[in-house]
Structure formats: C-alpha cells, structure tokens
Design goal:
alpha/beta; single chain; Rossmann fold; 3 domains; five-stranded antiparallel sheet; about 20% strand; 15 helices
Length: about 450
C-alpha cells in the first residue's frame, strides 16, 4: 500500500503517517497538473491512495476508474489543529480500504445533513447529480426517514442509505435517472423472505426517492439550504413526486398529502456553547465534538479561549458574554454549558440565555448545590420566572461519581445526549438486574 500525500499537508501530519506500517510516504506536488498527469504520476510510482485536502480531486473520474482511493481530509479550515484529529480516522480507514472509493474524514464529518448538501453543491459544479432520499420505512432498517445519498455523473456515491445490496440497487437505478431525468421510487426489501428477491435480512422495507438535480436553479436551492443550516436555522424542504415539479423551500411547516410529496424539516447540527474556557471546558469540547456537536467557546481571556486549547471549536469567542450570545441569536439548535470560574459569570450568562427569543435546547450549570441555589436566588430577583429556572440543569451532568475534568466532561456529554435523544439516564442493565434477584 503506497500513499501519495498532498504537498500542502502540514509537517506534523506527515510525521503522523511516517510511522504507519506502509511501504512509502512520498510528497509530490501537483499544483497546476492536469488530471491525466496526476494519474500517470501515481501509476508510475505504484501509489494506490491519494491523501489530500483538495476536495476538487474527489471528482477526477479517471483516478477512481484506475482504482485509486481518494481520501479527503475535511476541516472547518486548513488550520493544523483542525486536520490533526482526523489522523485516527485515517488510520482506521486504511485497514478496510476499497479501490476507487472517495472517503471523507475530518471535523465536518458529523454534520451529516450539512455534508450532504455541501457534496451536492460541489457535484453540481461538475454536472448533474441524483439525490436519493429515504421517504418511508417499515420494520427494522439500517437508515431513518430522510437519510440521503448523492450520486454524481460518474456513478460515485457520497454518504450512505445503509450500504449492501439495497444501496447497490439504488445506485443502479440512479444511473437510469441520470440519463433520462425521470424520477422514480426504489423499493428495498430487507425482509429476507425466501419467496421474494430481497436486498438484505434486517427485517424491514425502505422506500427511496430518486431525483435528478441540475442547472442554476438546483444550485441556488442547495446554496439557500446551506446558508440556513450553517447559520443554525432549520428549513422546511418539500419534494413533490410529480414529474413536472421540482423541490422547494417553504417558510413554515405545511400539510401535504404524503402520496404527493415528501416534506421534511432539515435541522442544523446542534451547537454547544461552552461558557468558560477552563480545564473542564477543554475536556468538554473534546467530548462534545465526538458526540456530534459543533462547539463554540466563550471566555473573555484569550489566553484560555484560543485554538490551541480548543482545536475542535468552530467558533472561539474571546469577547464579553453579551456579545457572544448575541452572535448566536439566530441559532435554533443551541445548547449551553456554563463551566465558568465564578458565580458572577454564571449569573450574567444565565440571564442572557434565559431571555433569548429562541429558547435554548439545554442550559446546564456547573457547581455545588449551594452555588447553584445561590445563583437561582440572585437571578429570581431579576424577574426570571420559576418555570424558566426549572428548565436549567444544575448542577450539570449525570451522577456517575465524576471527579476529574475528563470525568465531568463525560458526565455532561451523557446528559447532552439524554436531552437530545430523549433518554432517561438510567442504567440499561437496571431492569434485568432487578429481575435476576427476584
């Protein structure tokens, strides 16, 4: 296995790969090279993997047709701290590589809906594309309603609707849709029934809608969706099933006959605002990033609120708390964790967060019960209702006996998941253990 490494990759990234068990790691420039020249260069030296930060290289068809695997490192920027955390994903990926694939690793990989439409926007710059959307499911299936897959003009798929034979069937039908422009449903039978031709044994069924996207109108729609999602705002997206109608956005939720159109609310990725950039905040940013949150950190001390301490953060707000919260005013999916260095900072942040026109999904506050009660008492005198105070998670986190900053961060992360997913916080084994002792 030989890897060609993008010439613009930072030196520490090269060092990370240098000790990996591969034949060679080589740096070669390709600035200004044509597609064919790059492939010839790779073939000459026997390279099978192209590791790059240049997303345009994913669309070079002859690389994939020749069996070259293109690994694209994705980050909010090309800053070194954004790229280095991707190396664990690269190492894992190298153990199960398939020739001719495009693989994306990096900081943005968790924002699935944003990624999907970013990929669609990029593909549309090169030609037509098919967007496959799961519109209905029954029983046990690998993906949920709304899951999406993008197929470009060369047949390359981005994202997944579950893989396996079912996805292969969708990819075959997508080629027909690319050629004819005729929209269609694809039925995926995962029942495993012996009397029927099935695509798996999960036990359920999936219905997938395939539609060709092309032209300036499609590009404008995609960019409109991305602008809203990246600004932290949800959008209502309608996909008509009639052949002569195209997808569109609506201002508010609409009631539509489900046999005539698919209506979905595209949600922005959740953002966790960490107020207080101290030791707990540093560990919490790591956990939040791993569980799918965009991270914003606020602290008026630049020595703490910086990219060195917070490589995961998409926003570092080394400003006063009122300015920071104002900058996030439009975010509809905002979570906040107050892990500040003192009572007065909690008080200022809480009052502003509780008065947001768009309520936070979650507000948690670190501290002992005594400190939390002290803050509650002070803020109640400022006109905040008891109902709003009752919505605060304080002291923050689930009771797992956490002591260190790392353990406290896990405790808070678990509570974030519980709130987001609607869990109970109870041990999964609790009921069974009780039954065993009866």
């Amino acid at each position: 296995m030989r890897i060609l490494l993008n010439e613009c990759a930072p030196r520490p990234l090269k060092r990370e790969l240098a000790d990996y068990d591969i034949s060679t790691v080589v740096e070669m420039g390709w600035s200004g090279r044509k597609n064919g020249e790059l492939l010839a260069l790779m073939n000459q030296a026997g390279f099978t993997i192209l590791l790059t930060t240049d997303q345009n290289l994913r669309y070079q068809q002859n690389l994939r047709q020749a069996g070259v695997t293109v690994v694209v490192l994705v980050a909010p920027s090309n800053r070194l701290p954004d790229l280095l955390p991707s190396m664990s994903d690269v190492r894992q990926m190298l153990t199960s590589i398939s020739p001719g694939n495009v693989i994306e690793v990096g900081r943005n990989r968790k924002n699935f809906m944003v990624n999907c439409f970013q990929q669609l926007a990029q593909v549309l710059e090169y030609g037509s594309a098919v967007l496959a959307t799961v519109t209905a499911v029954k029983g046990s299936v690998p993906r949920e309603v709304g899951a999406k897959l993008v197929v470009d003009v060369g047949g390359q798929a981005f994202n997944t609707i579950g893989g396996g034979a079912g996805e292969a069937k969708v990819l075959r039908q997508a080629q027909e849709v690319l050629k004819t422009g005729k929209k269609q449903f694809v039925e995926i039978d995962l029942s495993g029934a012996p009397q029927r031709q099935t695509q798996g044994v999960c036990g359920g069924h999936m219905r997938v809608w395939l539609e060709r996207w092309q032209g300036d109108a499609a590009k404008l729609l995609v960019h409109s969706i991305l602008r809203s999602l990246q600004a932290g705002q949800s959008v209502t997206f309608v996909t008509p099933f009639e052949q002569d109608r195209t997808p569109y956005l609506v201002e508010n939720a609409v009631c539509v006959d489900p046999t005539a159109a698919f209506v979905e609310t595209l949600q922005p990725p959740p953002t966790l605002l960490i107020v207080g950039a101290g030791h707990v905040g540093i560990q919490l940013a790591k956990v939040a990033d791993q569980i799918g949150f965009q991270v914003a950190v606020q602290d008026d001390r630049p020595d703490w609120a910086n990219a060195h301490h917070y490589p995961q953060a998409s926003q570092i707000l080394a400003i006063e708390i009122d300015q920071a919260i104002a900058s996030l005013a439009a975010h509809q999916n905002l979570y906040a964790a107050l892990v500040t260095r003192g009572y007065t900072y909690d008080l200022a942040a809480l009052q502003l967060l509780l008065q947001r026109p768009i309520p936070c999904q979650y507000i948690g506050m670190i501290g002992s019960e005594k400190r939390v009660r002290q803050v509650y008492g002070a803020i109640a005198h400022r006109g905040i209702s008891k109902e709003k105070l009752a919505s605060i998670y304080g002291p923050i986190g689930l009771d797992i006996g956490a002591l260190t900053p790392e353990e406290i961060a896990v405790s808070i992360g678990a509570e974030l998941i519980m709130v987001r997913r609607g869990g109970t916080g109870r041990s999964l084994s609790e009921q069974l253990r009780r039954q065993l002792v009866i």
